Amino acid sequence: MKIFRIIFILCTTLMLLNVNAQTTKEKFNFSVFPKVEKDFKRVVIQVPATINDASRQIEIFVGKQEMVDCNRHTLMGEIAEKELEGFGYNYYIVHSKGEFTSTLMACPDNKKIKKFITFVPRIMRYNSKMPIVFYIPNGFEVRYRILTASKTMHTATIK
Fold first, then answer.
1. What is the DSSP string of 62-84?
2. Which of helix, strand or coil describes residue 95?
3. Other C-beta atoms lying within 10 Å of the C-beta of residue 44
4. What span, in angstroms and rounded, lies between the C-alpha atoms of 92 and 36?
5. The domain containing residue 140 runs over which residues?
6. 1 to each of 10, 12, 62, 149, how far by Cα in Å?
7. Confidence band (pLDDT; 50, 70, 90) for 11?
8. Number of folded domains in the chain?
9. Contacts of 79 (CB under 8 A, 6+ apart)
């Protein structure tokens, strides 16, 4: 009798893990978001479920590839956060003409290279249950890094 109970618990656990392994893409209805306007595209970040989502964050880079010199460059414009009325979800609309600012260092060789130029990066909560939705101009892209918390805690020193 005890072996049947163990098998039942094991099978139930495996079924639950399989249900939770479905991707957010399969579960989430994107039709509730606004239609994509002309000259824009909708991109989505969906992160996998973890044991502890709260121990992670997402660093998001919105930008585009440009030929630039040795200076540091930052895109001009804004990333506006909007609320999806009636649902409580947020999404982001990027407003930019693709212009950028740069430092004014003298570049000795005047050489230009292709680089991914971005807005100031954003740090957001890691949430495997909700996608992060962006509306970006054509020619732009969204990249991200998953940041994890260190298990080591440090103490500040008194000076």
1. EEEEEEE-SS-EEE-SEEEEEEE
2. strand
3. 15
4. 12
5. 24-148
6. 14, 17, 58, 44
7. very low
8. 1
9. 62, 92, 93, 94, 95, 119, 122, 134
| Confidence band for 87, pLDDT divided at 50, 70 and 90 | confident
Taken as a whole, the chain contains a residue count of 159
Contact (CB, 8 A) for 112 and 158? no
Is 47 within a domain? yes
Secondary structure class of 103 (helix, strand, coil): coil
Residue 102 has, within 13 A of its CA and on its CB side, a CA count of 15
Q: How far apart are CA 151 and CA 98, in angstroms?
A: 40
Token output for 154 = 């440090």
Domain of 38, CATH number, reads: 2.60.40.550
Q: Are 43 and 62 in contact (CB under 8 A)?
A: no
Tell me whether residue 33 is in a domain: yes
For the question of whether the overall pTM of this predicted structure is more than 0.90, the answer is: no
